[in-house]
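I have been asked to look over a protein record a colleague put together. What it holds is a sequence and that sequence's fold in token form. Please read both lines and tell me whether the tokens look consistent with the sequence. I do not need a full report, just your reasoning and any doubts. This is what I was given:
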Amino acid sequence: MTTRARAGAWSRLRDWAEEMWNRHVRQRELYRQLDLLRADLKARTAWMDELTEEELAEMLRGLTACIDAVQAAGINAPDRPEDTSTTDPTAGGAPPLA
């Protein structure tokens, strides 16, 4: 194997290792963000665990009535590109109320 071939192989190996490390770092950050979102969701919905079956049924009826009213009024939500969000997931903030 020539020196040039060894240098090329080493360069490819180094590039591959760098790519694998960067992928590991990106995925680690994504999992960290996912864990934060899970914890936030759990904190936001903890109060629901304390509701009785009757309270849950009442909430469901109210939600159904609200959805039916919106559909009957023919109100359409404005189109928004799929890659946009109403809140920054890393900030832990709630979506803005309309």
